[in-house]
## 1
Amino acid sequence: MVTETGQARRPTSFDVAKKAGVSRATVSHILNGQGSRFPEETRNRVLNAASELKYQPSPAGRALVTGRSDVIVVVMPNTTFGSNLQDLVDEVTRLAGLHGLSVVVRFAGRDPAETLAAVMNFRPVAVVNFGGLSRDDQTTLAASGAATIPSAARDEDASGKDPNFLIGQRMAEELLRDGPRPLVFAALLDERTDPFGPARYAGLKAVTDARGLPQPARIEVPLDIVGATLAVDTVSVEGASIGVACYNDHVAIAVLAAGRTLGLATPEDLAVIGVDATEVGQLVSPRLTTIALDNSVLMRKIAADLEAVTKHKAPIQTQDAGREFLTVIQGETS
Amino acid sequence: MVTETGQARRPTSFDVAKKAGVSRATVSHILNGQGSRFPEETRNRVLNAASELKYQPSPAGRALVTGRSDVIVVVMPNTTFGSNLQDLVDEVTRLAGLHGLSVVVRFAGRDPAETLAAVMNFRPVAVVNFGGLSRDDQTTLAASGAATIPSAARDEDASGKDPNFLIGQRMAEELLRDGPRPLVFAALLDERTDPFGPARYAGLKAVTDARGLPQPARIEVPLDIVGATLAVDTVSVEGASIGVACYNDHVAIAVLAAGRTLGLATPEDLAVIGVDATEVGQLVSPRLTTIALDNSVLMRKIAADLEAVTKHKAPIQTQDAGREFLTVIQGETS
DNA sequence: CCCCGAACGTATCACGTGTCAAAATCTTTT
DNA sequence: AAAAGATTTTGACACGTGATACGTTCGGGG
């Protein structure tokens, strides 16, 4: 029953076995690392046959028998996707490739349950969570056999602090550098759909509390001039100066635009700080003061976790304990 | 051989069959639309059993037997990923969900062959190409049974023109609105890795040719102030005015920043136009003149193609023939 | 009464793989 | 030379599904 029409059938492990003159089981063993038990001569025969046939194991076949697909799902918040996260994804893809894994990117949609279901449907070997999966989701995932990476970096780093809390703290310190002033937290979105906002706000608040200042206000700043102006107008006080800690650089740019419209001088009346150190933020005038996040630390953590997961070992303790993962880029807006 | 430890086994179609008191084959038939042959009573019994057990067919099992996974791969250029594309991906995800398909996002990496291999490895039912897959890649994909979507929108729309060519034309027309001036095309990247650049440049050139102007220069503008200034300095002429058509809004912002550094007045000495109508572009000062792309047209095309693919019918001819898919947003930079 | 077709349901194969237990072969020891 | 051990190889099963082709039942027409 040969199908004359249509695309050529991909070679299977059976084809490799036939060409190498061994059984399919032998091929499978050798191609999956258990090959040390075989004499070099046999191993080479199989390896050569496989590469000559350009044999690629069927993902479906593997997934069916192992109950797990060779896939890593990267879950991203559907908030602005800066080049920051882009680079991170590229790097994860590269790393995963080293372990023979494919990477799938999934944006966390409006419905968290749907996102979780979609992720679980892939039966991934691991899930890289850049935001969008709650802690509950992670335990559900763990129960289904998929490790969440970075193992806890989004919740607490080596020093036991949530990185986003630290970001909030640093933003507050920077905004209060030249003396006390009321602080405002400028979010982009509804709090429920913002994975990082609450922790950052907490960081801000920790600083104002410590210094006996009133607790920061919170506004939602849409990325258009009219909406942003309205939002900023809510918190700007006649003749007084305020410091606005923004969700990211884009929000900061919106706040600055609003300030221009409202005739506020920067940084005197309106000090602004962003997060992400976007390229655009350094190209606008005035140049943005912003927080640069050191992805390399996070990336090393991810790499280590990934290594651990694929090797079925416990996550390695990273050595980045005291390392600063965030830097203030001093612009002209604070 | 019951595994006491570990997660609960997911229900299989066999479990559904048992609960409904029928055979597994019946379940398969009814759950795959071939159920019209069965009396309503049986059908309901199976359907209820399936929903009570929260039965989800195993993707691996399906993929193995059908030779195709219920997946749509969205290939994105690894250039800046604006909210533009983000929305598009969200919409594709929603649409695919309606057909019971999952969406996988893949960024086109440095190595096109590797990207293609990764995409083919998923054996997707269709591939949505937002840039990064060459025409050759598409035919390879087609040979493997995966349709490329939008079927030809990236190459020619209903009027037979490449959209990117049209974008180039419009940019030129806008920049030459107030009289002739030398034009420059500001790319972000190396031309080989830029999926849209060449066609846009061709659009520019078509206009300058038609008007008897010198052909546009081409510069690569990195997104930092020093690099951008160097690049712009290359093409700025003492006392004369130039018009710069940019790859996207971010590049336009970089060109503007360079112009400020070089002491060029905008739009008199340096007119700039971007593409994408980014939110940030409308928040900076001066407000960017830019080209807004109407995703709804592209999206309808994708939706139609998707429908066609899942229904195994030929792509429907969309009715958007004469519709403008791009709009100039008049800012303060041209 | 017999046969037939329609209606309904199911046994069975095929997909490609990983792995266990057992078989086959080779090597060493008694 | 036979037994015991070590090394190398393989047969066979399981994974969960879609679909083809085949059975079974039942009512009715010849």
Note: Residues 12-14, 24-25, 28-29, 32, 34, 57-58, 60-66 of chain B lie near DNA strand D (CB under 10 Å from a C1').
## 2
Amino acid sequence: MPSVPTALPSRDYAGQSAEQRRADRRERLMQAGLELFGTEGYPATSIEKLCARASVSTRNFYQEFPGREDLLLALHSRITGQAFEAASSALAELDDRSLAERIRGTVRAYISTTSSDPRWARIAYVEVVGVSPAVEQHRMGWRSKASELVTAVAARAVERGEARPRDFSLTAVAFIGAVNELVHEWSLGGRKVPIEDVCAELTRVGVALLTVD
Amino acid sequence: MPSVPTALPSRDYAGQSAEQRRADRRERLMQAGLELFGTEGYPATSIEKLCARASVSTRNFYQEFPGREDLLLALHSRITGQAFEAASSALAELDDRSLAERIRGTVRAYISTTSSDPRWARIAYVEVVGVSPAVEQHRMGWRSKASELVTAVAARAVERGEARPRDFSLTAVAFIGAVNELVHEWSLGGRKVPIEDVCAELTRVGVALLTVD
DNA sequence: CAAAAGTGGTAATCGACCTTGTCGGTTTCG
DNA sequence: CGAAACCGACAAGGTCGATTACCACTTTTG
């Protein structure tokens, strides 16, 4: 009875372990997705183009991702996750400041992350919309998290007497829409005004939404 | 020398003129597009499916539209045009009312049009995003028109002393984003609250944006 | 009533893309 | 140094959708 090799064998090649080279290829595919999804658009980007740009064989593509859609999802998670993290930590550090300063700092962190690269902005605001039910669900999940963040800011403002208590759920969605549309317009439209103007405008919007009425 | 028939020949078939039957087929294709784009989504809808649903042959499809994208564009123009018209005429009729009433009436007209049918909302807010450069340009054109409408409201408010004069271009984009995101969330999410709540929220947003600062 | 003119549906062609199997080259181990 | 294992590139199979060519049918006209 021959011994059955249950564990997958793995050797080093070119001085790198199998995991290292897998991670390498995955990262190159992510970069290719960033470039192609972010400039040519998701529908115009085939798996072959992605692999050519990343210098990865199509065979290896399927070793890393079940399909093209999953690469888009991974990119979107990375972008949105970083933006969310930046916004959250900015907010945490500004807890003792005024409402306007808290909003300005949080918005600035979010904006400078998502629009630090025009391709990020395009993927986050355009290419990820209306792709498939799975992607839509993913997007809704992130929007819901953002909505919770805004609601938390509102609750804190009520605690500190900067806003009157009421249901902020609709307001939060409206504010998210305002942020996204304005950043999208600004980023994809050539960034004709300084980023501080956009921050100032969104701060005005946020403060107005929380304090009026 | 034979006479050259410069005018296109056209006979009646089934008691209808060529134009009538063309218009008929075109309208049936528009309805099929509304149904399929609005429920299955644009990427999942092939020309064959459209033709089957509309009882139109693929040959006649190309007689009416250069391609699938142009049907989407025609639908989007119809939806957005109607919404825009409803909003504009509502605004015109409310010129002597207070700022809040003008905003509420205009927003209500816009919302009740775009979300009178969930498929309209989905096409207007989701399926039309990120399809191709041509569609994106089309979308930007409509957004720019909407922005002008909001700016006009702001200018009128300044005239009447309801708002302080400043540059409202960024504010207009932010407001449009707020409207779209909230209506989208509300319409696609099951409409769990009455439409008047959405109108009230967006009125609050509009008034706040124009009067604060 | 027969032939011509025009119309609309069917089906074939064409190409693109996704997916997987195979092969040659390379590296490590005995 | 030889053999075996392993990796990655190439390419073929298969599916699906877009586009167009052809033909059968309908209506009119002489």
Note: The mean pLDDT of chain B is 92.
## 3
Amino acid sequence: MIAKLEMFIALAREQHFGRAAVSLGITQPTLSTGIRQLEEQLGVKLVQRGSRFGGLTPEGQRALVWARQIVGDTRRLRDEMRASREGLAGHLRLAVIPTALTWASTLAARFNDRHPRVTFTVLSRASADILTMLDDLEIDAGISYLDNEPLGRVTTRPLYREAYQLVCREDHPLADRETLDWAELGSLKLCLLTPEMQNRRIINRQFMEAGLEAGAAIESNSTVVLVSNVLTGDWVTILPTDLAGFLAEGKPLSLVPLASDSRAHEVGLIAPWQEPYTPVLQALLDEAQRLARPA
Amino acid sequence: MIAKLEMFIALAREQHFGRAAVSLGITQPTLSTGIRQLEEQLGVKLVQRGSRFGGLTPEGQRALVWARQIVGDTRRLRDEMRASREGLAGHLRLAVIPTALTWASTLAARFNDRHPRVTFTVLSRASADILTMLDDLEIDAGISYLDNEPLGRVTTRPLYREAYQLVCREDHPLADRETLDWAELGSLKLCLLTPEMQNRRIINRQFMEAGLEAGAAIESNSTVVLVSNVLTGDWVTILPTDLAGFLAEGKPLSLVPLASDSRAHEVGLIAPWQEPYTPVLQALLDEAQRLARPA
DNA sequence: GGAAGCCATCGGGCGTCCCGATTGCGCTTT
DNA sequence: AAAGCGCAATCGGGACGCCCGATGGCTTCC
């Protein structure tokens, strides 16, 4: 039963029988009959089929909610028993927005320091993907913006508020300024993240409120590209404080704080809401709370 | 896996391998190996064993929480799919405190009127048992006091507040009084419920606050016994309004309202807290809300 | 019209589950 | 101290279900 629910979840995620089977390490016929049997046991058609996968039926959508809950709880049961067997151990999968990667790294390092038998996978993902992956049980927790998208049934632990810095070469005209207003950035050659990324949308809003348009001459989905561009030309970019400090370190770059908008851009840890928490997840939430920059 | 979790829950409930097996309709060896396999799969000893059942280990206690969640959600998945297949149908098991039985009856009747394909089992139980049975998945919902014991992870729907009446024969000295104070009951020959029942404890408290002792000459765990005693002798009893009206109807008995203590004694529907609700349970909660006596 | 992709079905081998019978252990009784 | 009894574990077998590779029917894309 649980195995079939896992098949169903994989199928809903992959939207394709073959790929779902591969992702579970079974063959396509096995998955096919598994879904059929699940449908028989529940007495309901879950999947719209032609000769191709055609999406879930309405009943399938409802069943998916329960399936995720059941399979998730089953994994949590296993995890917790393993933890009680061999101490706090296991594997945590995190998905993190690019601008919070240094924080994720710190969090993972500190956590691993305290609990050496817990290992990590840290993926860089867009904020919308993080919520999907949480739903699909592909990750155990994420780090993302807490105040933009509707978050759903999750627990959050605030970590910090993003404040931004202009990153430019040491020989740039603005390099020696103490602070800057967003309004002063209008005439610069900007490298920014691509518009589908939340961080870029936040920056766009700041520009808009300053009466400017955030026209980036170079866009990328990687912060490394942004900084390396700044190094090689007379470009500038805008990055959160911590990440800017990390990427600029040891390079001939200057960082100039931008007037911060304290209302928003709160970043924090996001985990599935559940009762009770497994020891490992509880420990992660605790570690995040310790790490949180005091407001 | 789920089957084994059901075995584990049954074992925790029955505290006895043989009885647990019978309650599941399987043999004792099957249950025995099932538990063993569950322990192997989780890598943890769940049950303390000598040559007898010796209680759950601490890990077993923790695992039981998850097992109940998983098995409960699995049943809810099945229920919901059946509902979407053949409309609102199925079976609801309620456990109800004795003094609320008439309300339970009304609730079940009205619900069945609206949804004829849903059938009911209504059990009379003490309030503490109701919570245990909810935990053990033996019932789907209960009717009990909302404000006395700690309720745990449940949803509640208030139904009414208990107000009490003295029940006596028509020829009793107090039969014609409009109202009574608790303090006036000190000298009467009382039949009351047994002290382990919550209703009796509430009445005890009322007596205590009136400076009296609630010494019952006859005790029973059945309200039928109480009323039939009142009929045959010069006894009196104390019952909630609705139940008193029901039991006294057509008999030579008088009902005299007692000064009510509006603070407490709230009675309502109790169901496991869960997200989302199955259609049947949602409908029951809705019906309870409609039925609730306006405060 | 041919090729490729996709899902369903088929048949066989293997694993697992369940049951009845029996054994082994510990407590109680005499 | 020995017998009796209740309880859980173990054993051996028969049956069922699951998984896989192979294949077939259908659709879509060149």
Note: The domain at 87-161+265-291 of chain A is CATH 3.40.190.10 (D-Maltodextrin-Binding Protein; domain 2).
## 4
Amino acid sequence: MQSAEHPSRTARGRAAAGEPRPRFDTLTVPKASDVLAAEVRERILSGEFTEGMALPPERQLVEQTGLSRATVREALRVLEVERLLEIRPGRGGGAFVHRPGRESLANTVRLVIRGQRIRLEDLHETREAIEPACAALAARRRTDADLAELDDAHAELVAAGDDIQRFLRANIHWHNAVARAGENELLIGFMSALSQSIHAATDIEQFMDADIRKLTARAHARITEAIRDRDSEAAMRRMTRHVCGFAQAAAEVDRRDGVELTDPEN
Amino acid sequence: MQSAEHPSRTARGRAAAGEPRPRFDTLTVPKASDVLAAEVRERILSGEFTEGMALPPERQLVEQTGLSRATVREALRVLEVERLLEIRPGRGGGAFVHRPGRESLANTVRLVIRGQRIRLEDLHETREAIEPACAALAARRRTDADLAELDDAHAELVAAGDDIQRFLRANIHWHNAVARAGENELLIGFMSALSQSIHAATDIEQFMDADIRKLTARAHARITEAIRDRDSEAAMRRMTRHVCGFAQAAAEVDRRDGVELTDPEN
DNA sequence: CGGCCTCTTTGGCTGAACCATTCAACACAG
DNA sequence: CTGTGTTGAATGGTTCAGCCAAAGAGGCCG
């Protein structure tokens, strides 16, 4: 700061002589821990640090970087939050490179959905965009194992009967199985996060009555058949109808709830 | 550990007497900074801490929590990475609650895409699922301002001529404008991350020849028209054709490159 | 009154030390 | 020789005390 004020005075004298001075943009000073984190992040993402590789222990990083331990720890912590490192305590522990899997993709997306307070309608619309595509891909790429899982999930759904919690678990399981059969990691992650978020945000007990459950089971069966026949057109069409129907039903209940629940509050 | 071995001996004696012993699961000890981070995170997400609200300064948090400053700082750092806090130094600074916007949604998704090394085909497939839906929504919900932005972006695209970088910027801008017109925050974030990631991953100079540029401009024009006419069917159909065509062209070039570029390496 | 200076508040960073967990090596009893 | 308990070392987790740097607040002097 002082070294920035000081020259400005002398420079003003020169400016009076008509000589143009160089222009400096307001420069941003990054935090030390961010610098280290960025360095390590790049080396992980570039593939220089491979999955499972152990970083040097903290105290050694302190030596090598010239930073303090707190700073090094902050950097490691940042990368742990970003799921690029996994840190284990104790002897033989340390920071290990970890290329996150589909689970953490789903977790991240879910956190973002919650953090941004995305509207439920937005979630439904997004699902209407994504899930039919998943069904279409599933129909093209399904293996027999995928099919078996779909059948299992559907059997469980039917077997659930009036046990709503069991029904809902089987429902999510079936939807995730469709996404997995599509073999697209990104769509799998999105769908997983979406279905969980929608499930969590919907007061689902309210409208999961016997009729809707029956309708759901029929729709799943027909979609599963299309996937079995590798008929991606039909799978997509039927899935579109299924999720749109669900969204409408949810909106219906939500509107009723809106009247019941938000009025007394205000 | 010792307290777990010790009783086992005395208990073994009792077990011989046929009396079942209680079973302990391996218990997990959370880190102090995680506990604090979780606490603050919940209070932000639940709405108790509102946007822009200032948390107490670090030293005061140290008093109130009974933790050390390093621990408190780690917790705040975690929340900063999750974009739930914004931390500013200097007097009048501190930790401020920050509900992340669409920019950080896109950033997060982009990081995940890169971190997981999602395949380019997966990106294209996901885009083929999402962007037509965006176009359909845009046709239904567009305002005149949205339309103006689309027209601007298209004009810029046409004006770019042979300046490929300028063309590409205008291209991304137009695609983002479509998403924004759809008014779905989640889709906006996904699309923004997708188009940037695809752009970054495609060796785009290679196949963005004059023909493709002309084709792109025509497609954009026709889609913009559909959105102007609020014809969501047409918008969706044309967008599907557009992005599929792009994906095929990219795959074509990629295959050619694959032969050229990966052979010499091996 | 306005510009400058100093003071205070706040985050950023350091260093040293101690605690907790885990694993490996080793010594000792059976 | 075997297995079992003990000890020690490596490593992350936490604390404490302190200094530095940035940035606003308020007073002081021209």
Note: Residues 1-18, 258-266 of chain B have pLDDT under 50 and may be disordered.
